Every structure is written in structure tokens, then in C-alpha cells.
Amino acid sequence: MVSSVFADRPIKKLVLFDVDGTLTPARLGISPEMVQVLHALRKKVTIGFVGGSDFVKISEQIPVNDFDYGFAENGLTAFKLGKPLESQSFIKYIGEERYKKLVNFILHYIADMDVPIKRGTFVEFRNGMINVSPMGRNASKEERDAFAAFDQIHQVRAAFVKVLQEKFADCGLTFAIGGQISFDVFPNGWDKTYALRHVEDEGFEEIHFFGDKTHEGGNDYEIFSDPRTVGHSVTNPLDTILLLKQLFLDS
């Protein structure tokens, strides 16, 4: 039976969303049309977001209080109706010595990479993971778009991930490509399916997930393909809107 706090929703389903590329363009704000659609959707079902970024970054893009559940850093930082749930720590898992070896290797590798643009913040430490960007996260939208086009041809992130998987095979880590310019590093099992730990016993009839990086190696793949979810692959926020209308709002 669904939690009594969601008893007013006529459809006893949970709909979860990736953020970048699904609810918003990468690192940009949500559109008024998407906000309107989510408001209509929330009258029918329970909704939540599952992002890889930290809560502060996600809150810069979307109105986090418009969601019943908020899962930042794949659910390692979690909220239900604005109240915090249990969190986890990447540094406690991996330990300081192994962490230093990992970061030192990453920074040396990036220093030797030949990519068209380099800016700043190549490794971003988060509560439940680190985020690695060969070009650096301090880049403009135009620079991000240029790197994404370069990476699509040369696959520099995929090659980087392959090297790390081999070098740190004994560390129990997952390397997941997401967004336009980076990839996440986190303990095995701490992908977006981690968020399901917070909701799987809530009694929902179905848990739907919408994401754009649903291919194997993308950071939506695990939750998209998990047997506990009904996965929907989208190409951009407009695609998300059209699919939501088709599945939940036009009937």
C-alpha cells in the first residue's frame, strides 16, 4: 500500500527523472513548459528526480520543492517531501590512501590528454562520488557543446574510462559517462539504482524512470534496465514532455 502522504494521487505510481538531458538541457534551467507539465503530472502520480550532481547544482536547474522525492548524487543524498533521508560517503568507502592514488593518476592522465579546450575543475569531489572532466567543469555552454562534439568523434571519455577500469580493477568502482563533458566514479552499486533503496518498500504499483543516457556505459543505464523500474529512453526535454503527455496526461 502506498504511503499515506501520497494518498491524494489517483495513480499509485512513482515517476523518476534524470535531470540533464531529460528535464533540462545539460547544466541549464528548466523550461516553463516542463514546470507546467510536472505540476499536472504531480496531481496524478508521485514524482522525483535522480541526478548525479550534488543537491546545490541540481537546485540551480530545477525547482526541487516541486518534487516529492529528491535524489542527488544518485540517491546518496536523498530527500522525501523536503526531509533528508540516510546518506552515504565516498571517501569513507574508498579510504584516503586509495583516493589519493586514484586522483593523482587521473590528474596525470588529464595533463597528457590532447583535447581542444581545457578550463578548470578537472576532478570534483562530491559526497558520494567524484566527477571527472577531461576539459574541466568551468566551461561555457559553447565550450561544452564543442567538447561534446569532439568526444562523440574521438571517444576520449570512453578511452579514459577503459584505462581507469583496468588500472583500478581491484577498488570496486564503477565509471559512468554522463552529461556532455564528464564521467562519474563511485562504488559498485552506488549508481542511480541506489535511489531505489529509498522507495522500493513504499508500495508503488510501478516505478517509471525517464533518462537520456540509457545505453550501456551511460549513467542512466543501470536504473533504466533494472527489473524494478519501467524504463523510458528520451533524447531531450521536449521528448520527455511528449512521452509524459502520451503516457499519463492525455488520457
Poorly predicted runs: none
- Ends distance: 24 Å
Q: Using only CA atoms, what is the Rg?
A: 18 Å
Q: How much helix is in the residues?
A: 25-40%
Strand content: 15-25%
The average pLDDT value, as a whole number, equals 95
- Taken from the alpha-carbon principal axes, the silhouette is globular
Describe this structure in words.
The protein has 251 residues and is an alpha/beta fold. The chain has 8 helices and 11 strands. Helix 1 packs parallel to helix 8.
SSE layout:
Layout lengths: L12 E5 L14 H11 L3 E5 L4 H7 L7 E4 L4 E4 L2 E2 L5 H5 L1 H17 L10 E3 L4 E3 L8 H14 L1 H12 L5 E6 L3 E6 L18 E6 L9 H5 L4 E4 L3 H13 L2
Helix pairs in contact: 1-8
Characteristic key phrases:
seven-stranded mixed sheet; alpha/beta; 8 helices; 251 residues; 19% strand
Would you kindly provide a brief summary of this structure?
This protein is α/β, with parallel strands linked by helices and 251 residues long. The chain has helices at residues 32-42, 55-61, 90-94, 96-112, 141-154, 156-167, 221-225, 237-249; strands spanning 13-17, 46-50, 69-72, 77-80, 83-84, 123-125, 130-132, 173-178, 182-187, 206-211, 230-233. The protein has a seven-stranded mixed sheet. Strands 6-7-9-8 form a four-stranded antiparallel sheet.
